[in-house]
């Protein structure tokens, strides 16, 4: 059968293709690009107004929300127009005339199927006169009428119609191409070729080039690779880096350089006047530090460092342009600090395996301090109480001079009674004091619990030399406002008192049961005790009993022998009972172990599912009035050896601590047996004086010797003996064969 390819002249097939392609793009595009509800955003800002109402980022969010609310939403209009076009395509596709219709000559002639040949001939004459080309009719319609008449009157034509569905007989198989015919026409070839050239040779290579140019500059964490190499260089050069040195390295990041980052504003002549004035102001405060190394002495690095110090010292910017630069630097700081932490962790691992200079633990801690300092706008020497609103140096002095207890941190201030706290801050207004208390109660207070196990060993609680120790760290996030509520309610004391009362009640019930026991029940209990734990010194007691017996009675010997026989028979029965009881006990212990292992596996699987599902990094909004963007509470967790200034585990950034979270950290145990004390640190990247730590003690035992399996213990003598025996057998076989 012949084949024939036809293009879609009417565009019906092409419309089906276009409709399906348009739907594949429009549906996900609408799902991701449809703007969020204005009411939800307004509700979120209203809830945060009480605490974050005076923050910089909150004012920006509020201004942006007002602009969105006042201006027409162009995104919604564009999406609605796209959907209107989609429904127009659906309407056109639904009204397409189908060309592939079964041929029916009766329908062409508009007569009944039961019509006679005379009626068919009469109808043919009538239609041929009406549609004859000489009388203004259509030639195509005239040919259709003639073909229909022949299909109903001529036998051969009727046979072709009934067998092949066409009066002309078998036709060529047609394949439709979902493209309009005008695309392949010769006079349109230049335009079609131009479109292909623009799309495939200009647009597509440009998109790939932009993506490749960005991918070779940035890492996975959206940090410039040159910046990462800069961090590696300085941490390797200065293993013990103090806080000022760490700030200088941070200011030298290439994210703040116009040559490497186009988002940075170009410097103006006015900046050359304002920056020296700020440097003089900082020199009066003895903060600035001269740097002669490259790129620490580059203009962009000096500018970033001066703006950072101004932010920490609460010095106002002389121009709006410098204020914009400072906001950009602060918005990039948390991401850059995370990159610095990861560089220190990788250098520690590299130094451990290659015996290079290892960064000290103090360098890591100084780097971690920079993030909350920049978020809160406080220097390391200032009191953490200055993070609270309306707090100044005078109120800090009042807190330090408190008679009953010195208030030096946030927790001690939160633990005070409201009357005492109000007395200390009596110079503060009522409205300001209420705002301060509200903000203080929102600050985090995290409780951590650490458990150590060795997962691969039989006894998980025994730590041997060189074993991989898994520390399961559980974090429970509360607020400082919960501490004062617990003290007022006295929940801790009532719980402990209730536990003691329960223990006393259980002891009294056990004593009453022992008093009420009957004599035979006591004897049964004694027998059971004898079965489990035989009494020590049994021979001595038996000798004492024999001495007390009178030897003059002759019949007592026989009775004593009979008693001994009975006792031996009873003892054998008791042993049998014990063996029968021990068998199910062993099986029950094995089942309990299997159930416990299954529960642990399920718990580990649930932890992995929780970690996988908790993809959102939105936890609790940080109170940071001087930070330009909205910041979420994140935490670092790591294990260290403070005695030797070593980092044992890579710091883990926890971004899902809303109420509680659990993570696993692994490190190898020391190679020598002994007692070791390590510290689990839990540091905040947003607040000062909210860090937590817990000491863990390791009792390291000697590692067990690996015993070889008896199946593989084949000595050389056995191997030689086997060979000699085989040789002897073969020699005997040979001699017997020779004899035969």
Automatic annotation (TrEMBL):
Pfam families: DnaJ, Sec63
Location of the J domain: 104-165
Transmembrane segments: 14-34, 77-94, 190-212
Statement: the UniProt record of this protein carries the keyword Iron-sulfur: no
Region (Disordered): 482-613, 701-740
Biased amino acid composition, Low complexity: 731-740
Biased composition (Basic and acidic residues): 561-573, 596-610, 701-710
Entry keyword annotation includes Protein biosynthesis: no
Major subcellular site: endoplasmic reticulum
Gene3D superfamilies: 5' to 3' exonuclease, C-terminal subdomain (1.10.150.20), C2 domain (2.60.40.150), DnaJ domain (1.10.287.110), Sec63 N-terminal domain-like domain (1.10.3380.10)
Matches recorded under PROSITE patterns: DNAJ_2
Membrane-related topology note: Multi-pass membrane protein
Biased amino acid composition, Acidic residues: 499-508, 574-595, 716-730
Cell compartments where the protein resides: Endoplasmic reticulum membrane
Amino acid composition bias (Basic residues), ranges on this chain: 523-542
Superkingdom field: Eukaryota
Alphabetized UniProt keyword annotations: Chaperone, Endoplasmic reticulum, Membrane, Protein transport, Transmembrane, Transmembrane helix, Transport
PANTHER family (UniProt xref): SEC63 DOMAIN-CONTAINING (PTHR24075), TRANSLOCATION PROTEIN SEC63 HOMOLOG (PTHR24075:SF0)
Name listed for the protein in its UniProt record: J domain-containing protein
Source organism of this protein record: Clavelina lepadiformis
Lineage of source species: Eukaryota, Metazoa, Chordata, Tunicata, Ascidiacea
